[in-house]
Task: structure prediction
Amino acid sequence: MNYRIVVSYDGTRYNGWQKQKTTEDTIQGKLETLLSRMAGKEVTVQGSGRTDAGVHALAQTANFRMETELSEQELMDAINGYLPEDIAVLSLKTASERFHSRYNAIAKTYEYRLYIGNAKPVMDRKYVWQPEEKPDLERMRTAAAYVLGEHDFKSFCGNKKMKKPTVRRIDRIEVEEIPERQEAVLRFTGNGFLQNMVRILTGTLVECGQGKREPEQMREILEAKDRSAAGMTAPAKGLSLVRVDYQ
Amino acid sequence: MNYRIVVSYDGTRYNGWQKQKTTEDTIQGKLETLLSRMAGKEVTVQGSGRTDAGVHALAQTANFRMETELSEQELMDAINGYLPEDIAVLSLKTASERFHSRYNAIAKTYEYRLYIGNAKPVMDRKYVWQPEEKPDLERMRTAAAYVLGEHDFKSFCGNKKMKKPTVRRIDRIEVEEIPERQEAVLRFTGNGFLQNMVRILTGTLVECGQGKREPEQMREILEAKDRSAAGMTAPAKGLSLVRVDYQ
Result:
């Protein structure tokens, strides 16, 4: 059986989604260890993509193949019972044999939460970034418009050794103010994102909002195809993968 | 100067609001240590009331007397700079000499968050309680209506040695479903609450919602004036003091 799952996690204490040789502390690693133990043989969990160390997910999609007598609900309950309290499977369904969470994904949406109040974000301190200076959101919106569409995002790629194509398409960037939470939420939807790309975009947009850069510079940054042309990498803790779309 | 402050805290790692001889880990203790150091002499911080160990506050009100050259904004920024990241002063204003955060409070509002989804509340796990069985909210509303108004709440008091009057007035109990968070929020407003009172009310209402008790029993529980007549004490982590009203 090929199972499709939607997974939510608080990335604070993890080394990102992807399994690593040197550490147990990844979401994929936790899931694979648990499922392999349940199945009595090795189970591989395929995610829609990696998330960086410290990045959260409200809804990461993944799939894995496993034989079991359990119903979907029983399997999901069993997995949730074994998972630590900062990882949860929100849904579990059998999928077609061909379903592949990475290859079949057509769009992803990330949210970046900025705390822009005058105090301290006590309850949400692990999920928001508080820039030292409050950015102007209208300037951020103007800057964001320059990177919409298909571009080579090499300047916004955190992997310096990247050898694969760095062209991606961003369909939408929303900059929404949420006054009751004293927050601004940046929502990025696109067909795929490079390593650190949302965080570097966020850092650069915040610098535009703070007046450290002009919004029009976004075009030059894209053209430079050089990481050093862009702004800072915003901290991981403000970022969450919130949605993965399939056909 | 008599300063009035609004304080927010994540109570997870604290022994409640009130200073204790045996531990440093209280909110009042943290504030007093810090302010006394700033003032060069002992400063007492008076809260609107205690909160139990593990209970949070979105807006606790307190006041303290201190002489300083700093403006209100500077004083607030200095305090926030020294406080740990799970405590914040949201506002600070000079108050009349007579202002007393406990004696002058006329109403308090507490919120209790229940997670009622089918998965696990990953991001909010430290701020919600997930009862084993999902309660029926309409039954909870019916039960809640019985305790509105002025009553002797001795059955809902966690302090067995309580010698002071246990009559309180509850003006409002809302049971609101928040589908997008898969939560039910219980909102209690009254002129004052006994130790553990909101948590015992919540535990008892949830038992009514689960069918373990009949809503009409609430009347008998009040009449019993005996803690053992009421239900369980809901866990501290779901509770937050959200508002203190003054004339």
